[in-house]
Write a structure and sequence with these properties.
Elements lengths: L19 E4 L2 E2 L10 E2 L2 E4 L10 E6 L7 E8 L16 E8 L12 E7 L6 E7 L2 E8 L5 E7 L10 E7 L8 H5 L25 H6 L26 E2 L17 E3 L5 E13 L2 E8 L7 E5 L3 E8 L8 E3 L23 E7 L4 E6 L4 H4 L6 E6 L11 E10 L1 E2 L2 E2 L2 E2 L14 E4 L5 E7 L1 E9 L6 E4 L4 E7 L2 E8 L3 E3 L4 E8 L3 E13 L4 E18 L5 H5 L5 H7 L12 E9 L4 H4 L16 H6 L5 E6 L11 E5 L2 E9 L9 E5 L3 E7 L2 E2 L8 E4 L4 E8 L3 E7 L2 H5 L3 E7 L1
Parallel strand pairs: 14-17, 15-18, 17-22, 23-29, 28-36, 37-40, 39-47
Antiparallel strand pairs: 1-4, 2-3, 5-6, 5-12, 6-7, 7-10, 8-9, 8-11, 11-12, 13-26, 15-16, 18-20, 19-21, 21-22, 23-27, 24-25, 29-34, 30-33, 30-35, 31-32, 31-34, 35-36, 37-38, 40-45, 41-44, 41-46, 42-43, 42-45, 46-47
Bound molecules: copper (II) ion.
């Protein structure tokens, strides 16, 4: 379907008598010439296709208005981030409604108008969306996590509250069960069982044997968590042995040191050694990992264009390797065992030659059992500085912050799975937030200082929604360089492995907190509640900053250099996808207590672990996360795409919300850079080169990949437990 003015044209909705109104994902172009399949909206179909179940709501007519029809598409609001929310974590979605059959009944006056309203689920708060008519309408933004929409017949367009008769009503997808999942779960009554599933009741990997229960400690559950009282969960533990690093009384292990900055010039060599470090957090002392005795590892500071040598020595008791995340280096140094090198055995060494062709903020971490090794502290940043003067606006100070979360109970760190990751459903969310390895971040600045924060999310699974309440903030760059233009933001949404660079002005003396604010979902009850964590604070002294960069900060720069670099790619933005991926999952042998819970609601983004017990006991032995190429049917490592150097590929990624526990996935491509050109057909308005992009559940995301770096590379989810449960593929860029 052709596009007008670069925006996706919305497909018209056609009603089929007797058919069900549902939402479809991909609507093949009906008009000739056909250039691409359209990313679709709410469309009609004969069967309840679940593919867009999280971004469409079908309104139900009241008996007085049987001919009335209405659907509402929840459309992504473009933002610099992959997920658009307010600072308090409430979602920002645009409601695109399509109505038909809105006719004034004879019993109503001729001046009757139809008015749409939105309300909370309990109807205690109602807002007027406006007068509606047949056809397609933009009802504006909606920020309630769960809501209802009502259409009433009113006597005047000026009414301020609903008094007229009800015409249509519906509930947001976030508030309803996805009934189709009842029948895809093998353990559900009347389930359609596929052949690959073991018989109901056969749970080979799960056990409640006393020995296993002794070995495992139950994980800490969030306060007030409904999951703690869940039926059938009482004696369940993961079906793998627990992994702990070392006995707690290893007195010869040194305490970890704060990160050091290492400036490297072209040709310099760094020795990077992984090993054991002692940490004390929340009054508990335990052993973790560190690079060069530091947590995080050294911050490598280099200039764009430099090549450095890193002699990696593996000092931990597991095979390992170092991946240089986002760096477009030589393939043989990408650090992926089984794809670019053999794993580095404990005590062995591997020499990496790392070149840095792009300025930006990058990071390094092992590419072996990330759920353990990265979680235990093996990560560090790389600052690649531009050689162009004035590449970024001047600021008073730079802060490079690695965000993480650790899962602790009263005895220390919750053990990991020895042979397969635990927490294979949602990933391992921690309950102790860390900034640069510490539970509290502190900074002192002068009044009016502009501070540039380089954020990296090193957590296994958690998205952060960060803000400094009361301080103005603008986003300037992300994974692989600057945005087309700087933009004011109220918070920074950062998924695992992503980076964002924001400038913040501290104009008010006193204390400004760094907070993570989300709407937490409880999967048992399907309710959302606000949650806030304070990660640290900035103390602003009442002394004027020098120099003063307030004027530069107040100006939003448009980056002509970025626009020029993007220009050759623009002609490909509307091209047909060259490749597609569907993100989904399968389970086998989960206890009924767990799989029965998987009939709850799915959310576009899981900001918290809202089903802590069932997540914990599910391991990679029972859960498979899947990248599927719908063109070939190939999955995960069977995907072996080939590209040519210089090819611009468009990969359309669809995160199928109908899988039994769908979840958002931060998708990472090795060795290349890409643009997120559209989400659900809504074009991006401010582009930046990325190497990791969040794919919310139910969303269709178009990635335009610059296949510029030859070699055999990985594409995978960066939730460590999803990667550990198979969610990875390979692609080759041929020279
Ligand atoms: Cu994932």
């Amino acid at each position: 379907m052709p596009r007008a003015n670069g925006r996706a044209r919305l497909a018209p909705m056609v009603l089929v008598t007797g058919g069900l109104l549902v939402c479809g994902r991909l609507l093949a172009a009906r008009n000739e010439p056909s250039r691409e399949p359209e990313v679709a909206l709410c469309q009609d179909a004969d069967t309840a296709a679940p593919s867009a179940a999280l971004n469409c709501m079908t309104l139900v007519p009241s008996p007085d208005f049987p001919q009335a029809r209405g659907t509402i598409q929840l459309q992504p609001v473009p933002s610099p981030f992959g997920v658009t929310v307010h600072a308090d974590g409430t979602p920002r979605q645009r409601l695109i409604a399509t109505f038909s059959g809105l006719r004034t009944a004879r019993s109503l006056g001729s001046d009757t108008v139809f008015v749409a309203w939105a309300s909370t689920l309990s109807l205690d708060s109602v807002v007027k969306l406006g007068v509606v008519r047949n056809g397609r309408l933009d009802l504006g933004e909606m920020s309630l996590p769960q809501f209802r929409v009502l259409v009433s017949a009113e006597r005047s367009a000026e009414v301020r509250e609903r008094t007229g008769r009800l015409v249509l009503r519906g509930t947001s997808p976030s508030a309803r069960l996805m009934a189709h999942r009842d029948v895809v779960q093998p353990s559900a009554p009347g389930a359609l069982r596929d052949d690959a599933s073991p018989p109901v009741g056969h749970m080979p990997a799960m056990h409640d044997a006393p020995n296993a229960a002794d070995a495992w400690r139950m994980p800490p559950l969030p306060a007030g968590s409904a999951a703690s009282g869940m039926m059938g969960m009482a004696n369940l533990v993961p079906g793998v042995s627990p992994f702990v690093v070392a006995p707690r009384d290893s007195a010869d292990i040194l305490a970890s040191r704060p990160r050091e900055v290492v400036h490297l010039e072209n040709g310099d060599t760094l020795r990077l050694e992984s090993g054991l470090v002692r940490r004390t957090l929340r009054g508990k002392s335990f052993i973790m990992y560190g690079f060069n005795g530091q947590h995080p590892g050294p911050l490598i500071d280099v200039r764009k264009g430099a090549t450095v040598v890193v002699q990696f020595h593996n000092g931990i008791d597991q095979p390992s390797a170092v991946h240089w995340h986002g760096v477009r280096l030589d393939n043989r140094f990408d650090g992926v065992p089984g794809v670019t090198q053999d794993a580095v055995a404990p005590g062995a060494t591997f020499t990496y030659v790392v070149r840095f062709p792009d300025s930006g903020i990058y990071w390094y971490h092992p590419h072996v059992r990330e759920d353990i090794q990265q979680d235990l502290g093996l990560y560090g940043n790389i600052m690649v500085r531009s050689t162009s003067p004035g590449y970024l606006a001047p600021v008073n100070r730079e802060q490079v912050l690695m965000l993480d979360d650790l899962l602790m109970d009263g005895d220390g760190l919750t053990p990991w799975g020895a042979t397969s990751p635990t927490h294979a459903l949602m990933g391992r969310f921690g309950n102790v937030m860390l900034v640069n390895g510490e539970p509290r971040y502190d900074l002192e600045v002068k009044r009016g200082e502009i501070v540039r924060f380089y954020f990296t999310n090193a957590s296994n699974a958690r998205l952060f929604n960060l803000s400094f309440p009361g301080a103005r903030m603008k986003v300037v760059a992300s994974d692989v360089g600057k945005f087309e233009r700087e933009e004011w933001v109220s918070s920074v949404v950062i998924a695992p492995a992503e980076r964002y660079v924001v400038d913040v002005e501290f104009s008010r003396p006193g204390r400004t907190a760094l907070v993570n604010r989300i709407q937490a979902l409880d999967h048992m009850f399907g309710t959302f509640s606000p949650e806030a964590d304070t990660l640290g604070a900035v103390r602003v002294r009442d002394v004027p900053a020098t120099p003063r960069y307030g004027a530069e900060f107040a100006r939003l720069r448009r980056n002509g250099d970025v626009a020029a670099e993007l220009a050759p790619y623009r002609s490909s933005f509307d091209a047909a996808p060259t490749h597609s991926l569907v993100l989904t999952m399968r389970t086998r042998g989960l206890p009924a207590a767990v799989s029965n819970m998987l009939i709850g609601i799915n959310a576009p983004v899981e900001w918290n672990d809202g089903m802590a017990m069932m997540n914990w006991v599910a391991t990679g032995d029972e859960v498979s996360w899947v990248l599927r190429d719908p063109a070939t049917g190939k999955e995960n490592m069977a995907i072996d795409w080939h590209f040519r150097v210089g090819q611009v590929a468009k990969i359309r990624v669809f995160n199928d919300p109908s899988s039994s526990h769908a979840m958002d996935h931060p998708l990472h491509l090795h060795g290349q850079r890409f643009l997120v050109v559209s989400r659900d057909g809504v074009p991006a308005t401010n582009l930046v080169w990325k190497d990791t992009a969040i794919i919310p559940t139910g969303e269709t995301v178009d990635l335009l990949v610059d296949m510029a770096n030859p070699g055999r590379w990985m594409i995978h989810c960066h939730i460590a437990e999803h990667l550990g449960a198979g969610m990875m593929g390979v692609f080759t860029v041929d020279p």
